[in-house]
Design brief:
Layout: E1 4-7, E2 16-20, H1 37-40, H2 50-53, E3 63-67, H3 114-143, E4 146-154, E5 169-172, H4 181-191, E6 198-200, H5 208-213, E7 220-228, H6 242-262
Parallel strand pairs: 2-3, 2-4, 4-7, 5-6
Antiparallel strand pairs: 1-3, 5-7
């Protein structure tokens, strides 16, 4: 199985790539036996169905890339040197996670060492990043600029990150460093038009993907959207709920159209 899937635009291409790095659920056959069976019965840290939620974007001319393998194999949104994203005491899972977000151990025995981390990075991490980089460079060459939209979801409440429930949506742009203000403003305006509670760079300001690729001075802009799963899944946050999802898809479609209008 490939490390990722790319869905090309259906309609006239626009210079936007939607990246979905945490929707994968596959576990390589050599990795699965190392993990605790009760943990992999439901891979709770997955951004479940986010690729399905955004599957309308090729109809807007947008390219979509999504991961096939679980973030528990290797986390595509962490720095290769494993530098922490935040310094506020929250649990931050590693490049190769050894616990879930609640601190529960994933491995039956000792977690993998440096050689295994390097092997998984070579097979799963770098291919995704190289493909995403090439997509952005190709769009920049064709259009003069490119926009990366990194799509994520999270449970409503993760006490090891915040004692309070998360807002409906959090737009991250590395504190304004990863995108031109006009794209940030357009996205925020559309996200706030509905009944959603929206935050900006709090409690998430973009992971490694946003921070690595977002470089407005080079005409490559990056935004990360973190949303609570309750917006498109059932109340237990385990199954896709079409009625909720369709409302969310409309908000997202309006957001993309606002950005496309600026292009």
């Amino acid at each position: 199985m490939d490390a990722f899937k790319i869905v090309p635009p259906v309609e006239k291409k626009v210079p936007i790539v939607v990246s979905v790095p945490h929707c994968g659920i596959a576990l390589p056959p050599e990795v699965k036996p190392q993990l605790k069976p009760d943990m992999i019965a439901f891979i709770d840290d997955t951004d479940w169905y986010v690729d399905r939620l955004y599957d309308f974007t090729p109809d807007l001319g947008i390219t979509m890339i999504s991961a096939n393998y679980s973030r528990w194999v290797i986390d595509l949104n962490r720095a290769p040197g494993n530098e922490p994203l935040y310094q506020d005491g929250r649990i931050i899972t590693d490049l190769l996670p050894t616990t879930d977000f609640l601190g529960n151990p994933l491995y039956l025995h000792a977690p993998p060492g440096p050689e295994e981390i390097a092997r998984r990075s070579r097979l799963y991490y770098y291919p995704y990043h190289q493909a995403l980089e090439q997509l952005l460079l190709d769009l920049k060459e064709e259009f003069g600029k490119a926009i990366l939209f990194d799509a994520h979801s999270i449970r409503q409440h993760v006490p090891t990150i915040s004692p309070e429930k998360f807002p409906d949506a959090i737009l991250g742009d590395n504190n304004g460093k990863s995108a031109d203000p006009k794209f940030i403003t357009a996205a925020l305006q559309q996200l706030k038009l509905g009944a959603w509670r929206v935050e900006h760079n709090y409690l998430f300001k973009g992971g490694h993907i946003t921070r690595r690729f977002g470089n407005p001075k080079d005409d490559i802009h990056a935004l990360q959207l973190e949303m609570t799963k309750i917006n498109y899944m059932d109340s237990d946050e385990k199954t896709y709920e079409p009625a909720r999802a369709n409302k969310t898809r409309k908000i997202l479609e309006n957001t993309f159209n606002a950005i496309i209008d600026l292009l």
